Amino acid sequence: EAHDRSGVWRFRELLPDVALDAITTMREGDVPLFDAPHGAAYAGVDRLAYLHLGANPTASFKDAGMTVAISHARERGARVAVCASTGNTAASMAAYAARAGITAVVIAPVDGISASKVAQTLDYGAHVVAVVGDFDDALRAVRALDPAVAAVVNSVNPYRIEGQKTAALVLLEQRAWRAPDWVILPGGNLGNTSALGKGFREAQTIGLTARTPHLGVVQAAGAAPFARAWRDGADLVPVRAQTDATAIRIGAPASWKKARAEVRASGGTVLDVEDAAIADARAVIGRDGVGCEPASAASLAGLRRLVAEGAVAADADIVCVLTGHVLKDTAYATRYHESGARYANTIVRGTEIATYLHALI
Ligand code: F0G
Q1: Tryptophan synthase beta chain-like PALP domain location, by residue (predicted)?
Q2: Is the fold of 5-59+160-338 the same as that of 61-157?
Q3: For ligand 1, is residue 255 a contact (CB within 6 Å)?
Q4: Is 271 helix (H, G, I), strand (E, B) or coil?
């Protein structure tokens, strides 16, 4: 059966009940864990691994949650699914809704989201509505909708969280159920932090793993209300968010309370990093032959800071979660390489290629 080949649904004893004939799956969830020598050297640790959630069908971690949210919506006969999105939720919803025969409507901030993600979403046949404002404005508009009219599939939908928690199981399974010391991930709306924390705790409760990892949540400095609240030991105060890592340009994260409970329970921490640090970390992840979109690289940039500050030991066992594929924001990557200082493009005539290669090796 198709659901037995899904890295989400093969854990369905741990998921809410959904009728088998409503399950809409694209073999999501079973993603690779890669060793990361360049990343380790950059962060100043002995060894490091990347959990590459960009290896999902629509190239981001959203698919593990979306298969559950859309299957549930289909089971109860929803005809329209809607989300606010900085691009990845949009693409994932659009693909799964297309396969489920549900109309998809995306509410996207009018500027500052990756053109690659918009194109992908349109390819899957979704309606894309641009709202004046940012992600927070878009999510506010979506949450005000009558749920009888459309299924809201943002991570405020608990089925999304249930699906995304299976990433914790997929990670542990590949390590013979030994938890790492730290799992470091980017934080935006904070659904994924909530989901992974829940996944690790449940794995421990049912005896799959002896302990849970510390969660390290990393925000972009211009979109860091959770990092500030953590530092101040205070409730979250929304901000107007700005960062080139557009996926996590979020100033009023919906799931901050759940995420705070998970980070606390894990003995973890929350921090922020500048956009320039994210850009450099992203290039390093590329050098490991993996690559990711900007928001994902906040994990490695954050790890580097935690090690420099002594919060994470150099000999710790660490996994950085990469949330989206390198091709999710090609304009960003192009800008980075065109800025020139780091890796120049070389243009040669065909007849000069042999000479060029000789000079390289
Ligand atoms: N990384 C990527 C690539 C994302 O797309 C997102 C969120 C995050 C990290 C943060 O995850 O919100 O669960 O804390 N993207 C959402 C979207 C907001 O609309 O695609 P989070």
Answers
A1: 26-324
A2: yes
A3: no
A4: strand
Cα of 206 to ligand 1 centre, how many Å?
Answer: 28
CB of 294 shorter than 6 A to ligand 1: no
- Cβ(59)–Cβ(327) under 8 Å? yes
Return the best residue to mutate from 51, 83, 86, 273 for the ligand 1 pocket (most ligand atoms within 8 A of CB): 86
Tell me the CA–centroid distance for residue 86 and ligand 1, in Å. Answer: 7
**Dist. CA 23–CA 184, nearest whole Å:** 31
CA distances from 54 to 108, 296, 308 (A): 21, 9, 27
Q: List per-block mean pLDDT (blocks of 10 residues) for the chain, which spans 361 residues.
A: 92 97 98 98 98 98 98 97 98 98 95 94 97 95 92 96 98 98 98 98 98 98 98 98 98 98 98 98 98 98 98 98 98 88 61 84 83
Mutate to test the pocket of ligand 1, among 248, 327, 332 (most ligand atoms within 8 A of CB): 248
Instruction: Give the domain ranges of the chain.
Output: 5-59+160-338, 61-157
Q: Would the CB of 86 count as within 6 Å of ligand 1?
A: yes
CATH no. of 61-157: 3.40.50.1100
Residue 13's pLDDT is 97
Instruction: Say what the ipTM of the complex is.
Output: 0.99
